[in-house]
Amino acid sequence: MRVNFVLSEVATGLRRNLTMTVAMILTTAISLGLMGTGLLIAGMISDMKAIYYDKVQVSIFLSDHVTDQQRQAIATELKNSPEVKHYIYESKTEAYARFKQQFSQQPELVQNTPADALPESFRVELVNPERYSVIAAMFPDGKNGVDKVRDEGDFLNRLFSLLNGARNATIAVAVVQALAALLLISNTIQLAAFNRRNETNIMRLVGASRWYTQLPFILEAAVAGLIGALLAVVGLVLTKVLFVDRTLAGPIKAGIIPPVDWSAIAFISPIIAGAGVGLAAIAAYVTLRLYVRL
Amino acid sequence: MIELQHVTKLYPASGRPALDDVSTEIDKGEFVFLIGSSGSGKSTFLRLLLKEDTPTSGTVSVNGKVLNTMSKWQVPKLRRTMGCVFQDFRLLRDRTVAQNVAFALEVINKPQRTIKRVVPEVLEMVGLEGKAGRLPHELSGGEQQRVAIARAFVNRPLVLLADEPTGNLDPETSEGIMLLLERINRTGTTVIMATHDYHIVDSMRRRVIELNGGQVTRDQSRGVYGVGR
Q1: What is the pLDDT of residues A178-221, one digit of tens each?
Q2: Are A200 and A294 in contact (CB under 8 A)?
Q3: What span, in angstroms and rounded, lies between the C-alpha atoms of A207 and B85?
Q4: Which helix (H) or strand (E) holds A91?
Q5: A100, A190, B7, B100: which has the fewest Cβ within 10 Å?
Q6: Could you tell me if the ipTM is greater than 0.90?
Q7: Interface mutation target, options A195, A197, A206, A288, chain B, most CBs of B under 10 Å
Q8: Residues of A in contact with B80 (CB under 8 A)
Q9: What three-state secondary structure class fits A212?
Q10: Local structure of B110: helix, strand or coil
């Protein structure tokens, strides 16, 4: 294969169709960028699940008037329950310290919260996280010094279904955008084939192989796909540097939201590039087979 | 070398066959004129030899290979043994004379040093030495056809198919082109030329196959264009 010849054909093709090429690259970039975002959100969700689900499943908040005796009774009951894997006691002071850390980026909120506003609590990890109702039954709300029993898992489930929804929506838009990108690629390749019909006719007559005739077109699409993928990766990097690392710096520092690591972007980039190049090349090949006589 | 046996070609759009039970044989090194009015089947004849089309019935073979059953992947190999020249030259307008000729070799993967050696040789042979760097629009019609012939011949094909190669040229220029085709024929290349130009046919006195309504109505060695002209 004469690499120079094929590459110069590819360059000529991309240049001749400049506007279509730009459109093709941009739609591909947007589609792949959204796909990458979807993958990053998916990664974030699993990181968050690891952070949250492991910690606390049920919180038992104590009332302000709880006696030492009542507190001791609850601790004993938790210790003896076969449902409980592990529990910790959090005093008002500890709760306030954790609150201060979590909201360190919003000092006014911390300032306006009195140090004793947060209730003391038992944080309980269950053997089986689904068995929240057993604990709720053991410690009825408003009795024996218990103010309220809260299923943290329920809250987390709602949070995660929201995040999953965001991820799915992103991927759905990415798919629609990918469809637009594929149609544009197909159109561009048909136009390119039409523009170069003199060349391809001669190639056919002098006995160039089908492969040789088709390769420049397929490479043209693949190059556009690759450039689109590179733009998408740049987009992801900018999103991390300008949005995630700045705007979300507080919650990330407080451990509420996991950070977006460079390793995650490094992991996703080749997937995006592969998808971009692969889909573009396949779209071009199918177009040539279906619509263009070479 | 080339053999057609009871070849019929029907195009779906037309009721009348483009070729109707044509049988003929052309030997290696022959020079054959294919004559007949427009729509008589000359172009279909040439297209079948190139396997641009397959016959509806009958067999076409070139160089001992039956084209009917030839797979798509073998077609390029067949076409490397044939050169084509057309009435409208079909040159690439944005490439120089030398690049146009080299293109035919580049796309079949010939090594660069072969191309560098062969292209000037063939340009000299067709009488275009010194014009290698020109673009097609800087040449006369006759010169453009010489470029097309150089491109068709540069890979030393066994057969040269020419579809009305002088159709766009004045008689004097046509004569030059015919001398060139004759010269190519003398190297052992079979030349099959479809034409309307009776001056040329009459003066060359080569084999004439006349088609009429898709049928061979005359096959004559050392023939003339037609009686009564």
Answers
A1: 898 889 889 888 888 888 888 899 999 999 988 888 888 999 89
A2: yes
A3: 14
A4: none
A5: A100
A6: no
A7: A206
A8: 206-207
A9: helix
A10: coil
